[in-house]
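yo

u said u wanted the structure for the complex thing, so here. seqs first:
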Amino acid sequence: MHARSTAPLTGMPCSHCTLRRRAAFRCNTAEEIAFIQSLKVSEIAAAAHQAIVPQGDRSQHLYTLLSGWAFRYVILPDGRRQILNFLLPGDLLGLQARLFDQTDHGIEALTDVVLCVFARERFWDIYQGHPRLAFDVTWLGAREESLVDDGLLSAGRRTAAERLAAMLLQLHRRADSVGLVRDGGVELPLTQAHLADALGLSAVHVNRTIQAMRRARLIDIGGGVMRMLDPKAMRVLARAVAPALEPRPLL
Amino acid sequence: MHARSTAPLTGMPCSHCTLRRRAAFRCNTAEEIAFIQSLKVSEIAAAAHQAIVPQGDRSQHLYTLLSGWAFRYVILPDGRRQILNFLLPGDLLGLQARLFDQTDHGIEALTDVVLCVFARERFWDIYQGHPRLAFDVTWLGAREESLVDDGLLSAGRRTAAERLAAMLLQLHRRADSVGLVRDGGVELPLTQAHLADALGLSAVHVNRTIQAMRRARLIDIGGGVMRMLDPKAMRVLARAVAPALEPRPLL
DNA sequence: CGCAATCTTGAGGAGAGTCAAGATGCGTGG
DNA sequence: CCACGCATCTTGACTCTCCTCAAGATTGCG
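structre next:
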C-alpha cells in the first residue's frame, strides 16, 4: 500500500518495444517509430495505488501504458467513486487531460506500472508533421469512448449479472490482445470493490453476483486470476458480440 | 411521426454559417473555412424520429449538426435502450462510426434537423493538409467522451434526482452556448421516456422525480420548455461545477 | 504471528421498477 | 370547429433488485 515514488527509468528504444511486436497493434514505419522515439521523454514507473494523474490536476503529459493495469475514475465530493474505464498495456493516457484545461477525472495505477512519457509541448508536432499518427491519436480517443459507451450501457440498462459478464468479457478480450492470457487464465488485479465502482454496484452485490456465476460454472475467479469457463454463455448473458479485432495504433 | 425522407438541400456557404458566428466556437481562418467548405458535400434535412445513422450500420459520412437536436443510443436485443448522449447544433456526428468498421450505436433525430454532410473519402485530407483541423476533430471526440464520462458517473453513482439535475444542467448549458436559451427558457424536445433512457431510469420514476423538482421550485418544465428556477441549488444537488466554457471547434 | 485489506454471509430496508388505469394534450380529419 | 385517436404524462399499488449495516472468515504481507 505504501507507494514508492515515481521514478524515471532508462527504458528501451521504441523500436524494440515488446508491445509493438504484438499482432494487436498496427505496424509503424521505421520513420514513424523514430518520430515516436523523439517524442519520448522517459519511462516512469509507478507503484500500485499511486495516482498517475490526480483528479482535478492539469496533466502535464501524455502517456502510453507499457505494462501493468490502471483505471480512470471520478470521485464525488462525498466520496462516491465511479471508475470510468480500465487501462491496459498499449492504452494512451491523459488525452482528455491534455485537450481540456483541467480534467475532472483521475488516473490511478492498479498494479505497478511502467509508463512511456511523451513531451507535452510536442503534442502539436504530431499533427504538424505526422498526419498518420495524429489520426491514430483520434482513433485511440474514439476507441476509449466506445469503451465508456459500453460502460454507460451497462450501468444504465443491464442487470448486475449482465454488467459483470460484459465487463469480464471485455477485460478478458483486452488482456488477451496484449498477451496477458495464459492457458485461459488472466491475472486480474482488481478487487471486488473496483468492479463495484466500475459497474455502479455495491461491493456486496458484486460478491454475490460473482458467486452465482461461479456456481453456474461460468467463470472461475479468485486469487487475482480469472478463467472463462463458458465464454459463449457469458456473451449471451451480456448480450455482447465478440467484436472483430483489427490492429490498433500504438504510440 | 411520419418521417419525410432525407432530402439534400442547397445550403449556405460555410463562411456565412450562422453557427460559426457564435462566441461558443473557435474562429477559423478564411483558408480553413474554405477547406471545410471543400469537404462539404451537401446539407441534409431529416425529420424528427428519423434514423440518421441506424444502429449496426457502417456510416458513410461525417456530419455536423447545423440545427435541431439528436441523440446517440444503443438498443439491446430485447429492446432496452440506452441513450449515450444528446447532440446539439455544432456537434460532430459519426466520428466513431467513421473510425471503426461498424458502429454499435445509432443516431436518431429528436427534432427536425439539418446536417452538414462531409465527404467520407476526404476525411484523411483533414489530417494530411490541415493539422489544426485534425486537432479539432480529436478535440471534439475528447469532448464527447467527457460527456459520456459524466453520463456514466450519473448512471453508476448518482441518485435519480442527482442524475436528472446533472442532465438538465448540462442540456441547459449546452443549449445556451448555441443560443437556444431565451429569457431563461430552453425548448427541450425530449419526452420523459428519452430522459429515462438517457439516465438509466424508468419513465415513471423520471416523472415522479421531475414533479418533486417542480414542487421544490427548482425547475419549471413542461410543454417542451424548461426553465431553471434555481441553478445554484441544482448544481449543489448534482454535485456539478459550472465548467469554464472555452470556445470549441466547429467543422 | 498479527494486523489490515479483502471476501463472505445474513438480515432488513429503500430506491427504483413494473403493471395498470386514468388524465391531458395535440394533430388530423370529418 | 369539434371529435376522435394516439402519444405523453400522471398517479397508485405492489414488487424486486440492489443497498446498507454488521459481523465473521480468509488471505496476504511485514
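The two ends of chain A are 30 Å apart (CA to CA). Residues 159-160, 201-202, 204-205, 208, 223 of chain A lie near DNA strand D (CB under 10 Å from a C1').
cya
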